[in-house]
């Protein structure tokens, strides 16, 4: 079965950026790593069984992936932290997470497209950043 990555079927070409709440399905490859039902870090679904996140998120932290309101909860089976991760200067701050079961691909759950190792990005390329931070200085998360 062919899988299309990087597709946001819940939306057309309209994008919400600039510190505003994303609509359901706008970033279907982004999930919330949670511990005791509290958001700790974001993660990116790169395959139906694999997430990419920051290594610093796993200092004595067991997590699950939640995907928005009415969240799908998927337990993490294995955490692979980059072998050269340095918690002092945060070099190599990357980790792979293997899900206990495959994430069910749907209208609001899709894997992201990863570029080829030889892909060259243009300096003028548009970039989007997603996360669970404050929408304004000193604001609530």
Brief summary of the model shown:
The chain has 141 residues and is mostly beta strands.
Protein model, in words:
This protein has 141 residues and is mainly beta. It has one domain (1-140): Thrombin, subunit H (Beta Barrel). It is built from no helices and 6 strands. It has strands at 30-35, 38-47, 50-53, 64-66, 74-81, 95-99. Strands 1-2-3-6-5-4 form a 6-stranded antiparallel beta barrel. The protein is globular. The termini are far apart. One of its GO terms (biological process) is proteolysis. GO terms for molecular function: serine-type endopeptidase activity. Keywords: Disulfide bond, Hydrolase, Protease, Serine protease.
Main attributes of the structure:
serine protease, 6 strands, mainly beta, single chain, serine-type endopeptidase activity, globular, 141 residues, 0% helix
Number of strands: 6
What's the structural domain tally? 1
CATH class, named: Mainly Beta
Q: What is the straight-line distance between the termini?
A: 39 Å
The secondary structure category is: mainly beta
**Gross CATH architecture:** Beta Barrel
- Helix content percent band: under 10%
As a whole number of angstroms, the C-alpha radius of gyration is 16 Å
Q: Label the overall shape.
A: globular
Along the chain, the helix and strand elements come as: EEEEEE
CATH superfamily: Trypsin-like serine proteases
The low-pLDDT segments are: 12-17
Total number of helices: 0
Which sequence of strands runs across the widest sheet?
1-2-3-6-5-4
Largest sheet: 6 strands, antiparallel, barrel
> What would the CATH topology be?
Thrombin, subunit H
Mean model confidence by pLDDT: 79
Beta percentage is 25-35%
């Amino acid at each position: 079965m062919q899988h299309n990555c990087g597709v946001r079927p819940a939306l057309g070409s309209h994008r919400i950026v600039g510190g505003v709440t994303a609509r359901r399905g706008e970033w279907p490859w982004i999930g919330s790593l949670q511990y005791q039902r509290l958001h700790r870090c974001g993660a990116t679904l790169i395959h139906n069984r694999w997430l990419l996140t920051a290594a610093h998120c796993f200092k004595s932290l067991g997590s699950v992936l939640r995907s928005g309101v009415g969240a799908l909860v998927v337990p993490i089976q294995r955490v692979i932290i980059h072998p050269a991760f340095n918690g002092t200067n945060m070099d190599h701050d990357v980790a792979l997470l293997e899900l206990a079961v495959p994430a069910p691909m749907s209208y609001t759950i899709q894997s992201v497209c990863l570029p080829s190792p030889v892909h060259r990005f243009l300096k003028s390329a548009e970039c989007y950043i997603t996360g669970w931070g404050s929408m304004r200085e000193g604001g609530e998360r």
